[in-house]
Amino acid sequence: MSDGGFGLGFGFGGVLHSALEAFGPLCVGIDPHDFLLEEWGLPSSAAGVREFGLRAVDAAAGRAGVVKPQVAFFERFGSAGYAALEDVLAAARAAGLIVIADAKRGDIDTSLAGYAEAWLTPGSPLEADAMTINPFQGVGSLAGALEYAVANGKGMFVLAATSNPEAAALQGATLPGSGSDQASLAPSLATATVSRAIIDDVSAFNAGRIEEGPVGSIGVVLGATVDFAARGIDVTAAHAPALPVLAPGFGHQGAQAADVRRLFGALAPYTLASESRSLLQAGPRGLAAAIDARAAELRAALV
């Protein structure tokens, strides 16, 4: 876990709480698209994404609490890309930033355990503080990986409502019966949508570990441009412990800093507003100022 002075002794949820208190909800996405590499004067190569990532880390350090490297932009360069990502992850954690590996892994339970070990083991070359994870092989398949994360002081963000248009029919579908396929996870209401059932099961997992602290270590991914009502999601509902939210969709995709409280309601205090392209297009010389400005806007929106 990052040594940035955030820990409250309550695992990832406590670390996240302190980072939000110190810096506000901005999460800086590190997404080295080819067009951005070109704008930054960098090659489309492992060396290019490494330099891009390290410059983004330098700009974010002391200005935001969280960064989120998109793993796909590094792994496209094979082993050299992974070596570049290892350097970026290590630099970000050394700078005191919370690091979310945007890996979106999903599999049967035994394979998923391997992904959790790769990304969430202290001392691993790919060590991050949290990772994104895909539950669409059944929320029950996540149970072992979630337990592993918590046992190692780490976090996970489970995809629940994503903003891509293709997701709406699946995630908004109404379940025919109880949503949970794992006895240790609380059953969801028969009328729940897929998105709602995922949120309910994650909240139930956190509630089973209330001794961890007031903020859960397992969160959900809710796209900021999603119609939550259409996905059956009630953002006015309270969760105990508090439910962390990773919210992509700010900036380039259309959600505005001023909209955080309106969009996320009771979830807003623990929502990370993730923004990448609209910040990164400021270039290496303008990125720090862009992060400062957006972080200030987001803090003001939650006052």
Short description:
Pathway: Pyrimidine metabolism; UMP biosynthesis via de novo pathway; UMP from orotate: step 2/2. This protein is an alpha/beta fold. The chain contains twelve helices and eight strands.
What does this structure look like?
The structure is a single chain. The protein is globular and about 55 Å long. The chain has helices at 11-23, 34-39, 46-60, 72-75, 78-94, 109-120, 143-151, 168-171, 194-207, 260-264, 277-280, 283-301, and strands spanning 26-30, 66-69, 98-105, 130-133, 155-161, 218-222, 245-248, 271-275. The two termini are 28 Å apart. Strand 7 (245-248), helix 10 (260-264) and strand 8 (271-275) form a beta-alpha-beta unit. With 303 residues, it is α/β, with parallel strands linked by helices. The protein has a single domain (11-301), classed as Aldolase class I (TIM Barrel), CATH 3.20.20.70. The longest helix is centred in the last third of the chain and has 19 residues, at 283-301.
Tags for this model:
alpha/beta, TIM Barrel, 12 helices
CATH homology group? Aldolase class I
**What is the gyration radius calculated from CA atoms?**
18 Å
Question: Sheet bearing the most strands, described?
Answer: 8 strands, parallel, barrel
Order of helices and strands: HEHHEHHEHEHEHHEEHEHH
What amount of the residues lies in strands? 5-15%
**Strand tally:** 8
Give the helix tally.
12
From the helix content, strand content and strand pairing, which structural class follows? alpha/beta
- Ends distance: 28 Å
- pLDDT averaged residue by residue: 90
**Overall form:** globular
CATH topology-level fold name: TIM Barrel
Question: What is the spatial order of strands in the main beta sheet?
Answer: 1-2-3-4-5-6-7-8
CATH class membership:
Alpha Beta
Q: What is the helix fraction of residues, given as a range?
A: 40-55%
Total domains, how many?
A: 1
Poorly predicted runs of 5 or more residues:
1-8, 178-190
CATH architecture: Alpha-Beta Barrel
